[in-house]
Amino acid sequence: MISPLEMTLFLLLASVAGVVLFRYLNLPPMLGYLTVGIVVGPHALGLIPDSAGAQNLAEFGVVFLMFSIGLEFSLAKLRSMRRLVFGLGLMQVLGTIAVAVALGFVLERWVHITWQASIALGGAMAMSSTAIVSKMLAERLEIETEHGRNIFGVLLFQDLAVVPLLIVIAAFGSDSKHLVESLGLAAMKIVIALTVLLIVGQRFMTRWFNVVVRRRSQELFTLNLLLVTLGTAFITEKFGLSLALGAFIAGMLIAETPYRHQVEEDIKPFRDVLLGLFFITTGMLLNPRVVVEHPLIVLGFLIGPMLLKLVMITSLSRLFGASPGVAMRTGIGLAQAGEFGFVLLNLILDKHLVDATLLQAILAAMLLSMLAAPFLIQNADRIVLRLSSTEWMQQSLQMTRIATQSLKQSGHVIICGYGRAGQNLARMLEHEGLSYVALDLDPDRVAAAAAAGESVVYGDAGRRESLLAAGIHRAATVAITYANTPSALRVLHNIHELEPTLPVIVRTVDDADLDRLLAAGATEVIPEIVEGSLMLASHTLVLMGVPMRRVVRRVEEMRDERYSLLRGYFHGADDSDDDDGHEQVRLQSVPVDENSDAVGHTLAELGLFGRGVEVTAIRRHGIRGVEPDPATKLRASDIVVLRGLPEALASAEERLLKQRRAGSGAAAA
């Protein structure tokens, strides 16, 4: 029997290792926790016993998860999405439960399962994973797309549906003869609890938080937050309801105070750690022998519910006016099981509503469906194109709209993302008389901007077809204006394959992914934190009495040190010298042909250092090397980025492009 300290240390070690591995594979940490629980649990390696203490502690993870959902609960948000939430979401949950009950009656001859158990299992299987889906859609920049909004509308109703499902399943665990009385008593209790907490608590909460905040103690604020969350959960438990319901109500109450965002940040560490422990203990429930001994049952519970939800959600989405492609993407995004399904399964297990072996098979199938979810969402476009006969036509129409917008333009800028940064860039380009084509995935934003006469069109910049339709072969520059590294890397990969010498400017939040983006081919990376610090420094210097001219010069020097492009630029046909008549330093990309005499020679041998020109980067096989060594040997298909004055650039380009002749030696200096 291991001590509590030994168990805690081992769980921490296993959790860190599991999460690191799954993050390395670009999979959600939640799946890492579940896998760790399966491996170290009593049914596999047996390294951690099925401890009641660990189970009780893990319940607090669910409490803080429900509290976070309560913080997100907003009447205004529900009102704006009411058609999707209470239409599509409600029909999906009720439809799944109805099908589960019907199947329960059909299978009652072979498997003893009551109608109460069918409703409980239907509720668990109706859930989808908010954690996995939201992460995947955010990385793919699909949150504001039509199918993204459908998905989040359904997920929001699923989150809300957990509360009544917990109450109903708890009532099912009582004596079946008194089921109606139990449900009626539970309804009465929840009405009383909601009345007391929402009416009295809403008036009290803001005043109490004001008292706490005036003490100006972060420690006191956090302690008070834990007291409110756990205290409200304690009250609902004393009413015979669940801890999770109390936490949900506490979140709703605090969401109406001015301290909502601060609370959300303070509660996050507790929520994530305890929720991770909950997923570990959930994984410990799974007995891998069940999968080995009953593979067909597990496979049936894996494929059956996923296909059911896929078909049902796709059909319901079509009923709500979505196109076939959007409806199928919505179904694919919600086909998997969810974390709240595990919460409901734990309650089903506690109330002994379903046979333990059958529950093990369902648990295994749910875990497998969540493991498959990231791969399904990543390949949703391919799946839809194969299954939908009209999807290729709709995508062709979309590409035609983009091509129509860019057809008459040449030397333009392709703006990827038309948020605030993209719109500000477009304004500046218009003032300079420069043309642009903007691609964005928010249909409302695109419609509003297009109606105003702006050159923006609905399209995914991460797709090769969209870039081709936007005229990438005729464009002068690409600007990626959204701070999302995975999507920016996808865009950079496609640009390199289509137009490797095209300069690309990428916006980021900070310097964390600077090297990855530069290596992927970004010409320049603009971290917002750098610009923010420069503005902060300049305003501080001015307030301290430093002359404005000196401040401007200092900021320009710092920008010159940070941004290589400010020490040179790619020359265009309509460029002219500066106002003083002096030639300006420029940038130039030169591809090295396989027949070039420069192949096999070093940069120093070619005289590309110290003659008024320098090599700022070499792009080779899609990888951008910045500030290469003079001893670097050039290879065929390299792209050399030069910086210097026009005359020196012309001489260097001549040496790089000089064709190999029979018997010739090194390129002439």
Strand order of the largest sheet: 3-2-1-4-5-6
Poorly predicted regions: 578-582, 662-669
What is the overall silhouette?
globular
Mean pLDDT: 80
How many domains would you count in the coordinates? 3
Task: Give structural notes.
It contains 27 helices and eleven strands. It has helices spanning 4-24, 29-40, 52-72, 75-80, 82-107, 115-126, 130-139, 146-172, 179-214, 218-238, 243-255, 260-285, 288-293, 295-319, 324-334, 339-350, 356-378, 380-387, 391-406, 420-431, 443-451, 464-469, 485-498, 514-519, 528-543, 548-562, 646-657, and strands at 413-416, 436-440, 456-458, 477-480, 504-508, 524-527, 569-570, 586-591, 613-620, 623-626, 639-644. It is globular. The strands form two sheets. The chain has a six-stranded parallel sheet with strand order 3-2-1-4-5-6, with helices on both faces. A five-stranded mixed sheet has the order 7-8-11-9-10. The protein is α/β, with parallel strands linked by helices. Mean pLDDT is 80; it is low at 578-582 and 662-669. The protein has three domains: 49-386, Na+/H+ antiporter like fold, CATH 1.20.1530.20; 392-522, 3-Layer(aba) Sandwich (Rossmann fold), CATH 3.40.50.720; 583-657, Regulator of K+ conductance, C-terminal domain (Alpha-Beta Plaits). Helix 5 packs antiparallel against helix 14, helix 6 packs antiparallel against helix 8 (146-172) and helix 8 (146-172) packs parallel to helix 16 (339-350).
